[in-house]
Design goal:
Radius of gyration: 33 Å
Structural class: alpha+beta
Distance between the termini: 92 Å
Number of strands: 4
Strand content: 15-25%
Helix content: 25-40%
Number of domains: 2
Largest sheet: 4 strands, antiparallel
Strand order of the largest sheet: 2-3-1-4
Order of helices and strands: EHEHHHEEH
Length: 166
């Protein structure tokens, strides 16, 4: 994998501030940086998940690649700079300089194709018979009930008007 296809993780030294794209580019010796593909995280805020879990679960880093560095990553308590895939140009290779120290570079988890063909019962063809038509007797009863309810509502409305006028 090329450096542009990996997740790069850098610890930021305490009491330093590396936030603008120009700061990051100059500190890593890069010509181009896609700032929408960079992230600064306070590792101490990742209690319970840890930086290793954040990389694997949150960004899709390969768990097998992160596992050897898990203890070191989870021990981080300060700010961390994460360069996501596509942050650097394909020809660039980031080189950490103070105030950054390289914690690791990790490939993304490979996509796993489904086993065999995906099947769904709703996608299977069923009989092609047209839907059954409505029962005429049932429709007549339903319409008669509606007419009766409307007639009752009109009668109550007339009774109310007569009572108000009386």
């Amino acid at each position: 994998m090329t450096p542009s296809e990996m997740i790069h993780v850098y610890a930021i030294a305490p009491d330093t501030f590396v936030s603008t794209p120009d700061d990051i580019k100059s500190t890593l010796g890069l010509d181009r940086l896609d700032e929408s593909r960079t992230e600064t995280v306070d590792a101490s805020a990742l209690v319970g998940v840890g930086l290793s879990g954040y990389l694997t679960d949150g960004h899709g880093a390969s768990a097998d690649a992160v596992l050897p560095d898990e203890a070191r990553l989870d021990a981080q308590r300060g700010p961390v700079l994460i360069l996501l895939p596509g942050a650097v140009s394909p020809g660039d290779a980031p080189v950490a300089r103070p105030p950054l120290s390289h914690l690791g570079s990790y490939p993304l988890e490979a996509a796993k194709p489904a086993d065999g063909r995906l099947r769904s019962a709703s996608a299977e063809r069923t009989d092609t018979a047209p839907p059954p038509s409505a029962d005429p007797e049932r429709t007549d009863r339903r319409n008669s009930g509606r007419v009766a309810m409307i007639a009752l509502a009109v009668a109550l409305l007339i009774a109310l008007i007569v009572w108000l006028l009386a």
